[in-house]
Amino acid sequence: MAEDLLATAEEWAADDPDPATAAELRTLIERARGGDDAAHEELAAAFDGTLQFGTAGLRGRLGPGSNRMNRVVVSRAAAGLAAYLLDRGGHSIVIGYDARRNSDAFAHDTARIMAGAGISAMVLPHHLPTPVTAFAIHFLGTSAAVMVTASHNPPDDNGYKVYLGDGSQIVPPADAEISAYISRVGPVADIPRSEDYITLDNGVLDAYIARAEQLLPPGPRDITSVYTAMHGVGGDVFVRAAREAGFPDPRPVAAQFAPDGRFPTVSFPNPEEPGAMDLALAEAREHGADIIIANDPDADRCSAGIPTADGFRMLSGDEVGWLLGWWTVERMRRSGATMAGTLAQSIVSGTLLKAIALDAGLDYAVTLTGFKWISRVPGLLFGYEEALGYCVDPRHVTDKDGITASLLMMEMVAHLKAEGRGVQDVLDDLARRFGLYETSQVAVRVQDVTLIADAMARLRTAPPRALGGRAVLEVVDLEEGAYGLPPTDGLLYALDGARVIIRPSGTEPKLKCYLQIVTPVEGDLAAARALSANEMASLRASVSAALGLG
What we know:
- This protein is an alpha/beta fold.
- It has 4 domains: 1-48, no CATH class; 53-201, 3-Layer(aba) Sandwich (Alpha-D-Glucose-1,6-Bisphosphate, Chain A, domain 3), CATH 3.40.120.10; 206-432, Alpha-D-Glucose-1,6-Bisphosphate, subunit A, domain 3 (Alpha-D-Glucose-1,6-Bisphosphate, Chain A, domain 3); 435-547, Alpha-D-phosphohexomutase, C-terminal domain (TATA-Binding Protein), CATH 3.30.310.
- The chain has 17 helices and 21 strands.
- A 6-stranded mixed β-sheet has the order 1-5-4-2-3-6, with helices on both faces. It has a 6-stranded antiparallel β-sheet with strand order 16-21-20-19-18-17. A 5-stranded mixed β-sheet has the order 8-7-9-10-11.
- A hairpin with a 2-residue loop joins strand 17 (466-467) and strand 18 (470-477).
């Protein structure tokens, strides 16, 4: 078995066009042959199957081997995608990339392979946010797009996201079909390549910024904002977009502004993670900001923080979604526009958006998790998922977009400030009108992913009878299909006045639980908040215990 593994690794190293990963692999082989157990374990992990191409494309740890992100895996993915496109009449592709390690190499390898297959390939001129690539497929009219990014994953990861001609990320059965083409690709050295591809100028970026500016009609712009790019590629694009939309320049968190794939100031480059927003909060306190804006490293997500009577706090992803949904309706009311269209959200997100939509006479839709589903909702006006993803311009960016969502948050804050109100006032008004919606999460990260499957199987066969002192009224197995949605691995527990959804993460080794409690507000809102907070703490503890993962 050991000799077979070493032979596989040696064959891989001979096929690897990247001198760095080939050398890394040969060093591991030599160490393993010399009896180094750690080297043998690393080789076993690196070749433990093949990194699977799915609806999220590819995403995984950088390094040599079939189970890692590297130029061999990416080249085969590009060749398989090229064959898939050609068999369906595809003719062109645009390719973007972020500032992570090897992103530029993966992007240009893809362009060479596409060009070698006879597909017109265009690469964006430098590292740029994911929403610029999602915009480019519409703007350029290409058959497909690829974005090389691992979004907010740890520094040693990278990924490969695919969009098809409608501008949306792939969904079944396209993922399995592309994967089948990839499986038929032979040695990397035999894949045709060509330098006959185009490196674009900044025309796509300029058009994206112009479109973002068009989203905001004339109105108040007098706010002070603090912005963090989280060491990603959103900084220059966001500041330019804010300036051209008429806002004063955002005050950047300097230590996190420049792209840096090491993400040196944060444990995880995700605004949701503990400690990630500490520098931005400190900057906001020092300068008395009206709003904090954060993008994740590829700027497809948006997080926001606000001043309150008790100091600054970060809004939850649901709160930002509810506010942007409310602001979408309010903008229509203020402009006199006809109330028509759909507000949509993922199934794991808090459901206040439904009340906002129905109250305004708009349609409402719920989808599976991911913008590959949300973006396909007919008549979409605004869509969101609680993981900081918001689509505010679905005709031009058929995906979540942290840049334009941030601009609309700033516009809302500027209007409220001009009226002597704040964001918390709007949240309070919504609570009084529709009830106090509180959401929270329990997430467990594991080293051994089999623990997640074991926990889901246990919860299916022996579901809890009560959670947080509330009886479980109904158990819905989302894997069997529910609410008119395609099957997905997840469980929904309906409680009296509450709801819990448990599902494995699609991009990280996590089991994620989404909790919601709705508390009627009859009089004192502060008392309702205190009651809700206590109830949520009890529900969190109960759900954590039910998972059985320590």
